């Protein structure tokens, strides 16, 4: 199911100079903000939860997920170089699964790790807030990577759609229409975080069992479907 | 011995028919797939390579289907037309990756790079390569698993004459070794130099098939049209029409030129300057008026 060569090619494509800069920018921003907040207002559990929930989990994790998830396959399909993977005796679902693992790993490194560091800076992991949001970021990384990898497989405008989902659906729509929040990776991840933190600083609109089932279903479904799409992928741009 | 069988294959995209009921068999040796741009060559090659499903009909390699059959790639090497190829890797890294995806290693990659004579630049990034170098590295990646069928889409596009010759030598060698090599081209001379067997595709249809000499004869024996201007058009016309190589002459007064239809290409090209010299006529313009590839092909289709 996992092909080390596909993984190596994907890592190198994802962590190329320009994309690595973009991936690194948001985590740096998060840590700078956290340091500034800590400097100005001192250690405050509520503020820590606001920064990690409002910026790290709601904005940074999905954007990193979009970049890593779509970037793991979209550019190859766009420019046609994916033909070198497809013209090999390697199962198409293996290619997708490998790229998913890479996308998850990259999203985790660039979103969960800085979330934890930011949490330590903000309030020294008081009330388990840093750990809770880090776990949420880890969980969300998996679902985002799978969703956006699928997007990258089915559309050439994956980044746009991905950002629209991440920013408009999750952030804007979710805060206006309560029903939309049930169908939100962010809320599912928060449900897991709520369990970790225990207190009432971290809350989710979705119950833990529902969240876990939806997370697993979305991840597995998106990955399976992407594998099927890749089996019948038409290489565009020829004639 | 590997045989690729294309059996009543059509492919349409919406209302557009790109490939129309083509049946052909491609056997060992070098076969040229010739046709003007937009004739459906790439669509056909994509279907041969298993990247596109035929709308109807079937494509098999020694009896096994190529569509949705990843294992078939153990026997097929593909050189795509498109340029993109993991430009951030070096040539060697790229070919090694291709070898690994076939379950092979550095050794196979080194052998393939040696075959295309790219060892000297194998540690440079692909982004620094010229068009010809890219083409050779693509070849190496297609040869790495020693395939019995090699599919190349417009492999000579953008290559300089020396690179073209090198690649032709290589493909000829592959054909002589008993591999089935199929390449597409829209340039007759390319195909003629390399392929003993030619398949001609025009507007999605299989227009001609066979030995290149027969097809070449069909192409050269067709009526040729020339536009000629001279110091004395009417005297020249009178002298030319006496010879059987000329089928008709029209005096185009608006253009101030003769429109000549020649039936025997070889004889006419020798006749024209001789007649002009004998009659003391100066030739000012001699230009073939229907040498475009499309007219050659449309003549072929009609034949």
Automatic annotation (TrEMBL), chain B:
InterPro entries given in the database record: AAA+_ATPase, ABC_transporter-like_ATP-bd, ABC_transporter-like_CS, P-loop_NTPase
Family: Belongs to the ABC transporter superfamily.
Protein name: ABC transporter ATP-binding protein
Alphabetical list of SUPFAM superfamilies matching this protein: P-loop containing nucleoside triphosphate hydrolases
Molecular function terms from GO: ATP binding
Assigned keywords, A-Z: ATP-binding, Nucleotide-binding, Transport
Organism the protein comes from: Streptomyces bluensis
Boundaries of every ABC transporter domain copy: 4-228
Domain of life from the UniProt record: Bacteria
